[in-house]
């Protein structure tokens, strides 16, 4: 086996090179791989094997996030006053727990009737148990704050470093420079790391998608992550690095504002959250609905044809950009809904874009203890006593107020 392995690997590599790395996929017509070979002194040319480093980097991001959330995000959340809601834990009922995990989190009426017969409970108790069980799985404000703070930290650093590396480049100001000399364009070390870190981060987000907070736009977020990874990977291999850095910069410019608004939302800083959201909405709408389609997509779809004839890479790259633009339009619709609420209702009720959990309905709030049939007598007695105490206090306050009014009228009576 040891003697067969090298020839087998060589054959697999030859097949991969013959099928995947065909020049018609990656290079404009009339250009061969030999034409774009560069010497070391000319600079670094992007190679597909460079992207292998993104896999261990994604794992490193996950480990760094674990440390960041526990050592920085959690203490910071306490400083800002983030509070977690206390929820009623569902009673331990093995049959209902098995159905909850294996079948459905929201049983139908027929299933509720069947489960009630199996467990000897009323339909009301079955429905209440499932409501408490779903609420029990809802992520706490601290968990959501930690996730938002981690993304805020990365997006802020990525945008700052990316803008700093691009501010002196000619293609940031003149988009035709993205294609001048293509495809024989060396890649600066700063832009190489910009690419590798961005792709590693989005890979880590995709790996953690099953444990992160599931939001209203969960499917759109997964599509966005996958499209971004393909976009970054393909643009690096095809040496679309110059326009690729612009795509990443446009996206990072507003994302850190959204995450900061979420952080203050979870902390209950309503005015700060609303102000940050308005700034985010303005930047998002300008960068994603004006700059991205009007400048970035235009230069890849139209301006690039001034420098080379269309080929497979041209169509594939622009198709990924159009997928991202469709997601931008979807998110812009949600954001405009929030802006409408902010203007006409005076506040931002919730993050329409991605802050609402998709698996729990808004109506699933914990009911008062005295309304549930499953409440113990001690719980109901405590609720009744608290109401009686409140009623008594109101009576005492009313009596004192009336007595104070009578005393104030006595001198006039005399």
Automatic annotation (TrEMBL):
It is found in: Endoplasmic reticulum membrane; Nucleus. It is a multi-pass membrane protein. Residues 355-376 have a biased composition (Acidic residues). InterPro entries: HD, Homeodomain-like_sf, Lag1/Lac1-like, TLC-dom. Residues 143-344 form the TLC domain. Residues 81-141 bind DNA. Residues 79-140 form the Homeobox domain. Gene3D superfamilies: Homeodomain-like. Residues 355-379 are annotated as: Disordered. Pathway: Sphingolipid metabolism; Lipid metabolism; sphingolipid metabolism. Keywords: DNA-binding, Endoplasmic reticulum, Homeobox, Lipid biosynthesis, Lipid metabolism, Membrane, Nucleus, Transferase, Transmembrane, Transmembrane helix. One of its GO terms (biological process) is ceramide biosynthetic process. The chain crosses the membrane at residues 51-68, 152-172, 192-211, 272-292, 312-336. One of its GO terms (molecular function) is sphingosine N-acyltransferase activity. It comes from the Eukaryota. One of its GO terms (cellular component) is endoplasmic reticulum membrane. Pfam families: Homeodomain, TRAM_LAG1_CLN8. It catalyses: sphinganine + octadecanoyl-CoA = N-(octadecanoyl)-sphinganine + CoA + H(+). Its main location: endoplasmic reticulum. This is Ceramide synthase 4a. It comes from Seriola lalandi dorsalis.
